[in-house]
Write a structure and sequence with these properties.
DMT family transporter, EmrE-like, mainly alpha, about 70% helix
């Protein structure tokens, strides 16, 4: 059992932070094609242990539910609602990991600190994602609901990883491959044919090795052995780090609102990840 599962979560979050920057390089490619190819490439990370891909049908179903179900719902949310609002509702998933932990993980309890940390993180993420400008419109309700559904899928998938019977981490390669093939089927059904150039193929390779592949292996290790309440609070660093990386690459900029968001996210992460104080011992009479 890993001694520091939070480090695996931090590794996944760091890789996911590169998703926006790498994705911007492939913006002209159809989304389902990008996800499908990236997931298939990500599956190669555990190809050397392909025998481990044989798992119980229920375990495989949960894996595909998370990897394919999340991206399927999110991309259709982006089709039916403005990306800004859909992305904000998608970032409910860290808060849902925190709030749903007692329902799905036996023996888990929420403290006021966990709840406050999750809410602070969500407010900070909302400022990062929206830039302080948000306009929800009833005409985009189907897209909003799909974005919330995507957040529910990813949060419940993350928590179910802790409930599943033991399976090798390398089995994530099988989840990636099957989810990638389903995404490519969606590409064939819903999108025009893609013709990536050499530079785009190189970016797809980086996506598959990093945020759309390697990150899932790290995430599985973190959630299987870590405290989901802490990991959920820490996850709000994803949009923050993504913004910082976009700024460093010249594709974004920091302002006072972003700095406030940084303080909120860091404060929320600190509240949610601090170890709990032991209960005071009763004093002898």
């Amino acid at each position: 059992m890993p001694r520091h599962p939070t480090l695996f979560a931090a590794g996944a979050i760091l890789l996911w932070a590169s998703l926006a920057t790498l994705g911007a390089l492939n913006r002209s490619l159809p989304p389902f094609f990008v996800v499908g190819i990236s997931l298939c490439i990500g599956s190669l990370l555990s190809l050397h242990r392909i025998r481990d891909w044989k798992v119980a049908p229920a375990t495989l179903l949960v894996g595909v539910y998370g990897l394919f179900g999340y991206h399927f719902l999110l991309f259709f949310a982006f089709r039916l609602a403005p990306a800004l609002e859909a992305n904000l509702l998608n970032y409910l998933w860290p808060l849902l990991i925190v709030m749903l932990s007692p329902l799905l993980i036996p023996g888990t309890q929420l403290t006021r600190r966990h709840i406050a940390g999750g809410l602070l993180g969500f407010v900070g993420a909302a400022l990062i994602v929206t830039g302080g400008k948000l306009s929800l419109s009833q005409q985009y309700l189907p897209g909003y609901l799909l974005a919330i559904a995507a957040a529910v899928v990813w949060s419940t998938f993350s928590l179910l990883l802790k409930r599943l019977p033991s399976f090798p981490s390398s089995a994530m390669g099988g989840f990636c491959l099957l989810s990638g093939l389903l995404s490519l089927a969606c590409h064939a059904l819903f999108e025009p044919a893609a013709r990536p150039d050499a530079a785009q193929w190189a970016t797809l390779l980086l996506l598959g090795l990093g945020p759309m592949g390697g990150a899932f292996f790290l995430w599985e290790r973190a959630l299987r052995h870590g405290d989901p309440r802490r990991i959920g609070s820490l996850s709000y660093a994803t949009p923050l780090l993504s913004t910082l990386l976009l700024t460093a690459s010249g594709r974004g900029e920091l302002n006072q609102l972003a700095l406030l968001a940084i303080l909120l996210i860091l404060g929320g992460a600190l509240l949610g990840t601090l170890p709990e104080r032991p209960a005071p011992k009763a004093q002898p009479l």
